[in-house]
Amino acid sequence: MNQVSQRTNNDRTYWIETMCRIADPVLQALSEKQLKIRMPIEAKLFDRDQYSHLEAFGRLICGIAPWLETGPTVGEEGKLREKYAQLVRECIDAATDPNSPDFMNFTYGHQPIVDAAFLAHAIVRAPKELWEKLDVRVRDNLVKALKSTRKQKPFFSNWLLFSAMIETALFLMNEEDWDRMRIDYALKQHDQWYKGDGMYGDGPEFRMDYYNSFVIQPMIVDIIELIGHKESDWQEMKERVINRAKRLGIIQERSISPEGTFPVFGRSLAYRFGAFQHLAQMALQGKLDESLEPAQIRCALTAVIKRIIEMPGTFNDDGWLQIGLCGHQPELGENYISTGSLYLCATVFLPLGLPADAAFWQGNADWTSKRAWSGETIPIDYADKIK
Prior knowledge:
Elements: H1 3-31, H2 35-38, H3 52-70, H4 75-96, H5 111-125, H6 127-132, H7 136-148, H8 159-172, H9 180-192, E1 194-196, E2 199-200, H10 211-227, H11 232-254, H12 277-284, H13 294-309, H14 368-372
Antiparallel strand pairs: 1-2
Helix pairs in contact: 1-3, 1-4, 3-4, 3-5, 5-8, 8-9, 8-10, 10-11, 10-12
């Protein structure tokens, strides 16, 4: 095996090992219905234990879902993938069964709208493994849990997309009462909130943070892809939605420094490399701008993952994530942040849904800032003109 192939394969192995290291404490505990006993709750506010368990589970599987859905079915990785798919199905049962000691909060407070949406997004990303293979009893419980979030009204911000994603999953589940209005409202408001150059406002105001990647763009793209055909005005949005998404992908790739760091600004930095969910999704779906090579995205994201995950203090002694961006930095946890929140970092692993022979995993290529700061020729960047 030549050096390039060895490096490429090592990247995929490293991604899988890191993903499993993050996932294991959550999935092992929840599958045994002991998540509420075992998971520590690091937070500034005393009430986060009401929400942190659903946060951890929904956000985690939102990231690993494509690997569960389209990962290999043979070989060592295939066996590992099947093991985790079964484990996640057991966890869905434990989380949604009212008689389970780990039955999660889908109704109290506003926060469950958020994390039920990440759970719903996981179903949308892996319908065969995480919906079709569920027992009828578990399906019924899951549907009831998702619908129970309708009791609360989302805030006038990116939260509109959480309600829309839940309804999109209910559409996928063939629930006749899926709500077009929640989806329509979210899509059209965000279309109005578009600020230009690949960036949506989080509500009427623009915020310079990573929420276009944490939530907004990935959910808009997946909602439009799955359900856009159901209404002509949604379908009419699709081209500009994808063009905006491509532009943000360019910006995200250019924001990764030669050392695998990225600008430290905005809310929720404790989500760590979840800041690159959007770039990861563009790579997974083959929607990268033509100026970007899939391999350069892999190399850039690998640098980010290594820069963050290998910092001492990222995990506690029992393997649970701790609040911080680079190590344990509890001061970076906003009042809404708790241990469960941190598992949004798993969304960087979306490209593991690509087969090992995909272009993403082949060869090596430096990313834009690494080339620029090495004195190499790079293309000029131009602002997007899509309205």
